[in-house]
Amino acid sequence: MIRFDQVVKKFGDHVVLRELSFTVRPGEFVTLIGPSGSGKTTILRLLMTLERVNGGTIQVGEEYLTHMERKGKLVSADEKHLRKVRKRIGMVFQQFNLFPNMNVLRNLTEAPIRSLGLSRDEAEVRAKELLEMVGLSDKIDAHPMQLSGGQQQRVAIARALAMRPEVLLLDEVTSALDPELVAGVLGVLKEIASTTDITFLCVTHEMQFAQDVSDRVMMFDEGQVIEDAPPDKLFTNPDHERTRSFLHAVLDRA
Ligand SMILES: Nc1ncnc2c1ncn2[C@@H]1O[C@H](COP(=O)(O)OP(=O)(O)OP(=O)(O)O)[C@@H](O)[C@H]1O
């Protein structure tokens, strides 16, 4: 569903991704772990087309995100092509980024009406189903400011799902939350991962969550995936010393 092939990303002289290659299969939940500043968010930003590659290709499903076919040749993607592929991908951020001046219902219906062309009635039916799924049916008329961080993040998850993404990117979705609110958000994500066929690519420092929900965990360092294994293997018996020392450091901090 997602394929990075020899992707290079630089900021000035700083090479963040060094010919990075990996794949995520349809319906898989894959978690990226690795040291701060190693480029995990950059991978998600490339998929969101917030950044452009300096080399290599990215595919989402059967389509290239970075390129498009013209007269049998691959050429750089134009804005229209990027927008089309980008619609298949949703993202939930650390900061919930809800529209502050809209109530919860409108936060969920605005984009489906504008971008997917749904009628208001259709969008509202879908929004209500999603609010039930994230346990917030009673907050439909609330404004974001009236909700806890955990509730806002659950609205943000429902809002991403309202766009019917095939791929959902999660970037440190619990980092801005008080500890007692983390479990509720992670529980909702676990439920969605197990009941939908959405493909997930997740960046998190919540190792227990990564272990519970992931099909695979990729340890990322210095622009490369250095280890890629099911969570039981990676967390208990990693092959690489670098993975081992990273996990020790993270678990000592917890
Ligand atoms: N727009 C930018 N301009 C210049 N440098 C950038 C830009 N975005 C990211 N970087 C640099 O790229 C590197 C990778 O950043 P990135 O945010 O992807 O790391 P990360 O692994 O997600 O880190 P963290 O776990 O702390 O969020 C960092 O050194 C960062 O300073």
Automatic annotation (TrEMBL):
Chief place where the protein resides: membrane
Highest taxon of the lineage: Bacteria
Ranges for domain ABC transporter: 2-247
Gene3D superfamilies recorded: P-loop containing nucleotide triphosphate hydrolases
Membrane topology of the entry: Peripheral membrane protein
Keywords: Amino-acid transport, ATP-binding, Cell membrane, Membrane, Nucleotide-binding, Transport
NCBIfam families documented for this protein: ectoine_ehuA (TIGR03005)
Protein family: Belongs to the ABC transporter superfamily.
Name of this chain's protein: Ectoine/hydroxyectoine ABC transporter, ATP-binding protein
